[in-house]
Structures are given as structure tokens and as C-alpha cells.
Write a structure and sequence with these properties.
By secondary structure, the chain is α/β, with parallel strands linked by helices. Helices cover 41% and strands 18% of the residues. It is built from 24 helices and 22 strands. It binds adenosine-5'-diphosphate (ADP) and magnesium ion.
């Protein structure tokens, strides 16, 4: 017998070999250790198996019986319906599958099977899309002796029996070699089971309770390593030397006293937090969260001015040209009485214009506003002291890193209006300082939000918009769900759609149309006209989603609202009601052909205006993978830790990390920490 170790290739395990090892790679199982951590898809527990005579509608059950009938037919709406009828001696139940032709062949009359799922009633008991399992005699015996048996995800060539034999062999031969990273005092304190117990019970649980405990233990470990990694990195960063700014700044004082409003308490608090960082020689690495419209820009501007007053340059990077242009416009206005130059640098500029700006920049320190264009090689920024990244989740890791490389250890402030839930922020942004503006400026109106579910209401809606625009002189956005920055079809369709809307509902009005495929000059002209009096209705796409600030726009109608994400809709809603009066946010989406998920999103928006609460809903609806996948460019690969279910572990793990000597772990778990680093580059902004 070979002396098997955890890092050996899985092919050396008895009964595996190179062919099956290759198949196992599909489940990311390459080593013995990988298999140990491979969670079963689910378990079959004898206590869960019910007799059909005892089941109730709505229950999750597993039943065991013989296939007595199978049928396939097309419904009137041309949906393929497959019915598998099972009899267990006490009653019958139908398993029903829609449009999954391949399922039909899986079942044979007389076959002994297990069905699991939620019980429904339609002319008899049925389960829609039941999970099914065929077990060998030997396996059935295992269940009937009262064991809980694991069921793994399979692929062609790998059966349950093979999986179970293999893991059994591994547990018997290498479990002793597993080293528990958590010291025994902490295991006790946090009510954990040992790693060995957890691994054993993940695969061959002695009770259901132990499955839960095993999973909790793995979740704890995952978070533990991750927090450990963040602590180490934070320690590393503290060693760097950056600028120590003088934060008593005349420019900043003059700016604040010239504002036509006072900062909210939240804004003041956050500005002080930023100042503390700016004063300290450790480079600032701060995330500023604040709901749409909470006034992040003013705070950022105040801190940029401090850097300028110290003789440094500040950069503000925005994700879109429209937003950069708007920042430029607004900031220049704010600073009109101060001797601070403001430059704009975006991609659409001609090279002459650009060269001129780049030359001009070198004359006197000031504020540079721009888009990705700032990242280009020829953009050299002297004395870069402060970098502000607006809507940071819109940028990739490399882009954030690149802008920082334009200087030597500038202070960094990243801003986001799509916050992640607080508890989660603590766990994933562990090495960032976190500031939150949790208060809206006074006078901000909360838009009344309504989800219009029927298409035939559209005319009423637009007639009403028409009246409001004429009688009350409000401005209205109409947003169409077209994907920006992509191909010609979109251009064609937005123009066609806009024409239709105008012809049908606003033939007598001047209506602007704005989309991402226009040139910068065109976009600027249209936004200016909308800001001014030239027209009161703007038909547009999500180009206006982030940051756009048109004070008197108080109505927004979103067509096909189900095609937007929750965060996107909330951002859109933040564009209106910025200057008092009443504001209305109307989402049009037929409720008869959209998913349950879409319905939940739209209902949540109808009833909730708090961005933090909405982000929790969003996280719950989409799950962490999706939530972070699209928004944050990747997320540490947590297999067991679920930020919602395991939220109460977060605090515990933070404490645990503070209680161990992290230096020891740094050496001992180097490899593991390295993988985490790779997986979590997205949060590495400083
Ligand atoms: P966001 O946090 O979404 O970036 P902005 O910084 O664009 O918000 O601010 C939204 C609007 O509120 C701007 O017009 C800004 O001038 C205004 N504003 C910011 N702070 C205050 C305040 N304390 N009182 C009144 N208005 C404010
Ligand atoms: Mg903003």
C-alpha cells in the first residue's frame, strides 16, 4: 500500500487511476485533499423517507417506490410534459417534468426509485421536477440500516458507489494526517467541532445535526483564512509611507463656507475620518459608501482641495464620459471663486486638445477629472497626492491599480452608491477603512414608486406625464432597457423606440434622445439642453444610471423594468427628486410573463427606498456568487460560507483571528493564503 498524503494526486487512491482522476477534475478534485472537501450534493436519510399516505401538500419529502407508469405528451401550448408515476404500497404520486425530453429515458417501468421535492396537488399528489435517485440493493440496505448516505454530483463514468468507496478509503487512510489550524481553546470557545470530525461527518454523517455542524466548521475555516489574509495585508500596508498632509486648509474652508448648504452631520463625520487618514503618513485606503444622492461628491471635493492646498494634484476618475463631464461642470461651478484649476480628460478628445491640457496641467496644481482616458501612458500627473474613484465597482482591478501607479502612494478614496450589506462589508473589505454617509441632505424627496403591471396602462401613464410636464413644468426621464456600448441593433432600436413613443404620446412636445453610441459632443449638448429649458422629456438608456444630477427632473418611467437589476433600478431612481417637489418613479413590466425573481425585485423597489436594505434583498435574491460576480469582478471562492446564512460567524471569526498569532499562520499556511490572494484581487484597491 502506498503511503497516501493529502497533496497526492487523486489518481493514486485505490480504485481511481488516471481515467477516473480525469473525470473527477470536473468537480475541481485533483488531490486527495480536494476530495475530502468535496461536499455531497445532498443526503438520503431514512427518517426523511415518507409513505405516500402520510404526505401533505407543501412538504419537502423523499418517497421510495416503484415506477408504475410513464408518459410523455405535448400540452396545448406545445410544452412537453413527462409524467412518472410511482407507487409505494400506500399510494401514488406523479413526478412531472416540463420540456426535458432526456429525462424520459432515465425511467423504466418497475424500476425502484427515490423521488424528492415539494409536494403539490393537481388531480392527485405530484412533485414538479423531482430529484430522483436509483440506488443499488447494497445502497438501499445502507439506508435501511438507518444510515444517512451521501449523494454526490455525478458525471458519466462516475457512480455513487465509486464516489462513496473512494471517500471511504481516503477517510480511513489520510484523515489522521489532517492538521487542525484552529487551536483547541478556540474550537471550544466558538462551539466548533474538530476538523477531523467535520470531514468525517461531511461524508458519512452520524446525524443530521452533525452535517450542519460540519458545514459550520468549514464556513468558519474559510472565513478564518480569509480574515487572516486581510489582517496580514493590512499589516503590510501599514509599513508603507505615503504623504502626511496638513489638513488645516484655507481652500477647504473657503469652499465649504461658499456652499449654499451646510454639510449633513454624516458628511461632516466622514470628512473628518478622511482628514485623519490624510494627516497620517500611512496611505489612505478608504471606501466611502453612501446611498444615491447622499452627497459623496462634496465630501470628496473637500478632501481633494486639501491635497491641492498642500501643493499636490488630485484626480477624480469616473466610469463614464457623461459622468466625468458632469463632475467637471459641477465642480468648476463649485470652485468658480477659488484659485484652483480644474481639467477634464476623456477619451473622445482630439489629440491637440489633449496635448494642450496635458501641458497646462504642469503649470499649477489642481484637480483633474476624467475617465479611463486618464490611464493612458502619455498622461503623466505630477505630484499625485489624492485619487478619488467614483462608482468604484464599475472599474476593474487593473484600472484601479493603474491610476494609483501614476503617483507614489497617493491617498485613495473609492466611492460607491451600491453598498454591500454592512455585515458583509466587514468581512470582505476587512483591510479597507469604511466610511458611510447614512443620511440624506434635507429637502430631498423620496420618490413615490409604483410598479405598473399591465401594458394597457401605458397610455394613462404617458398622458399623465404629458400633463405634468406641461402644467407643472417638471422634467421627465423615460428609460429604455437597451444594452449600452454594444452593437448597431441597439442604436437602431433605441431610435425606433423613441420615435414610437414620441409619435404616440408626445407628438406636440420637444423630446430629447440620449444613448451611449453618441459622440461626447452630442451627449453634452443633449444633457445641457435637458438641464436648461430646451426640452422637458429625455428618452434614454442606462447611460444616465450613474451619478447624473439634473435638479428638476422629478419623473422617471422605466420601460420593461424587469430587465434591469435591482441596484440599477435604485440608481436610476436616485436621478429624480433632487430639488424638492413631488417625485414619481414608475416601473412598467407586465406581471404575467416575468420571473418570480423579477417580481420580487420590483416589489422590493416599490416598498423600500433604503439602498442598504435593497442591497441585502439583492444579495438574497441573486446569491453571493452572482451578486459579486458581476458587480465586483470576482469574489473569494467560498464554498461553505454563505454571507447571509452565516452572518453571525463574521464577528466570531474576526475575534478568533485577533486571538491567534498571525505570524505563525503566515508561514504555516502560505500556500492557502496565496490562493486567497489570487481570488480576492478585486478588493485590492490600495
Ligand atoms: P452622490 O452621493 O449620489 O454622488 P451627489 O454628491 O451627487 O450625491 O449629491 C447630490 C446632490 O445633493 C448634489 O446636487 C449636491 O450638490 C447636493 N448636496 C450634497 N450635499 C448636500 C447637503 N448637505 N445639503 C443639500 N444638498 C446637498
Ligand atoms: Mg455621485
Amino acid at each position: 500500500m502506498i503511503d497516501l498524503s493529502l497533496d497526492d494526486s487523486i489518481q493514486w487512491v485505490k480504485g481511481v487511476g488516471p481515467y477516473k482522476a480525469k473525470l473527477l477534475e470536473r468537480f475541481s478534485v485533483k488531490t486527495v485533499r480536494d476530495f475530502l472537501y468535496l461536499p455531497p450534493r445532498r443526503y438520503l436519510d431514512r427518517s426523511e423517507i415518507k409513505q405516500i399516505k402520510d404526505i401533505k401538500v407543501g412538504e419537502e419529502v423523499t418517497i421510495e417506490g416503484d415506477v408504475v407508469l410513464k408518459s410523455r405528451r405535448k400540452s396545448r401550448k406545445n410544452i412537453l410534459i413527462i409524467d412518472i408515476v410511482v407507487y409505494d404500497g400506500t399510494g401514488m404520486i406523479t413526478g412531472r417534468y416540463f420540456n426535458q425530453d432526456w429525462v424520459y429515458k432515465q425511467f423504466k417501468k418497475g424500476q425502484h426509485i427515490f423521488f424528492s421535492g415539494k409536494v403539490d396537488y393537481f388531480r392527485g399528489f405530484q412533485i414538479i421536477n423531482p430529484d430522483y435517485e436509483f440506488l443499488s440493493k447494497e445502497e438501499k440496505k445502507l439506508i435501511h440500516t438507518g444510515r444517512i448516505i451521501p449523494l454526490y454530483t455525478l458525471t458519466k463514468g462516475l457512480g455513487q458507489r465509486f464516489m462513496r468507496k473512494t471517500i471511504n478509503y481516503i477517510l480511513n487512510n489520510v484523515l489522521d494526517k489532517v492538521d487542525d489550524p484552529i487551536p483547541s481553546n478556540l474550537i471550544k470557545k466558538h462551539n466548533l467541532i474538530t476538523l477531523k470530525e467535520a470531514l468525517q461527518n461531511l461524508h458519512f454523517p452520524l446525524s443530521k445535526e452533525l452535517i450542519t455542524k460540519a458545514k459550520r466548521r468549514f464556513a468558519f475555516d474559510e472565513l478564518f483564512y480569509f480574515q487572516l489574509f486581510l489582517s496580514l495585508r493590512k499589516k503590510e500596508k501599514r509599513k508603507k509611507k505615503g504623504f502626511s498632509f496638513t489638513v488645516e486648509s484655507n481652500l477647504e474652508k473657503r469652499f465649504l463656507s461658499a456652499l449654499r448648504f451646510n454639510l449633513t452631520n454624516s458628511q461632516k463625520r466622514v470628512l473628518n475620518e478622511i482628514k485623519k487618514d490624510m494627516k497620517s503618513p500611512i496611505p489612505m485606503n478608504r471606501l466611502l459608501q453612501g446611498d444615491v444622492g447622499s452627497g459623496k461628491t462634496v465630501v470628496a471635493l473637500a478632501s481633494m482641495l486639501i491635497a491641492v492646498d498642500n501643493g499636490y494634484y488630485s484626480v477624480l476618475m469616473a466610469p463614464t464620459e457623461i459622468l466625468a463631464y458632469q463632475h467637471f461642470f459641477v465642480i468648476r461651478e463649485f470652485l468658480s471663486s477659488l484659485p484652483v484649476p480644474v481639467w477634464l480628460l476623456v477619451g473622445g478628445m482630439g489629440s491637440r486638445e489633449k496635448e494642450e491640457i496635458l501641458r497646462d496641467i504642469h503649470k499649477k496644481s489642481g484637480i483633474i477629472i476624467g475617465t479611463h482616458a486618464l490611464l493612458e501612458k502619455d498622461v503623466k500627473i505630477p505630484n499625485l497626492g489624492m485619487v478619488v474613484i467614483d462608482e468604484q465597482h464599475r472599474f476593474g482591478v487593473e484600472q484601479r491599480a493603474k491610476i494609483l501607479q501614476k503617483g507614489s502612494k497617493p491617498d485613495t478614496l473609492v466611492m460607491t452608491a451600491t453598498p454591500i450589506p454592512r455585515t458583509l462589508a466587514l468581512s470582505v473589505y476587512g483591510d479597507l477603512e469604511l466610511s458611510t454617509i447614512d443620511e440624506m441632505p434635507p429637502g430631498r424627496v423620496i420618490p413615490r414608486s409604483r410598479w405598473v403591471k399591465k401594458d394597457d396602462k401605458r397610455k394613462d401613464i404617458y398622458d399623465w406625464v404629458h400633463r405634468e410636464v406641461i402644467e407643472k413644468e417638471v422634467k421627465a426621464y423615460i428609460v429604455l432597457p437597451l444594452i449600452e456600448e454594444s452593437e448597431k441593433i441597439d442604436l437602431y432600436s433605441i431610435e425606433k423606440e423613441a420615435d414610437l413613443l414620441i409619435k404616440n404620446f408626445f407628438p406636440d412636445l420637444k423630446v430629447g434622445v440620449l444613448h451611449g453610441r453618441m459622440t461626447r459632443a452630442e451627449k453634452e449638448r443633449i444633457m445641457d439642453s435637458f438641464r436648461g429649458r430646451e426640452f422637458n422629456i429625455l428618452i434614454t438608456t442606462t447611460v444616465i444610471e450613474v451619478g447624473i444630477d439634473i435638479p428638476h427632473a422629478n419623473i422617471m418611467v422605466v420601460e420593461n423594468a424587469d430587465r434591469f437589476g435591482l441596484a440599477g433600478l435604485h440608481q436610476l431612481r436616485g436621478r429624480i427628486g433632487r430639488a424638492g417637489g413631488k417625485a414619481y418613479f414608475i416601473m412598467i413590466a407586465r406581471d404575467d410573463n416575468i420571473t418570480e425573481n423579477s417580481k420580487s425585485r420590483l416589489s422590493a423597489l416599490e416598498t423600500t427606498t433604503d439602498g442598504f436594505k435593497l442591497s441585502e434583498v439583492d444579495l438574497r435574491l441573486r446569491g453571493p456568487g452572482e451578486f459579486f460576480g458581476t458587480r465586483q469582478h470576482g469574489f473569494p471562492d467560498f464554498r461553505f460560507f454563505n454571507p447571509i446564512k452565516d452572518r453571525n460567524l463574521i464577528g466570531r471569526v474576526r475575534n478568533a483571528v485577533n486571538e491567534v498569532l498571525i505570524n505563525e499562520y503566515e508561514d504555516k499556511f502560505k500556500e492557502r493564503l496565496k490562493t486567497i490572494q489570487k481570488a480576492s484581487e478585486f478588493i485590492d484597491i490600495g
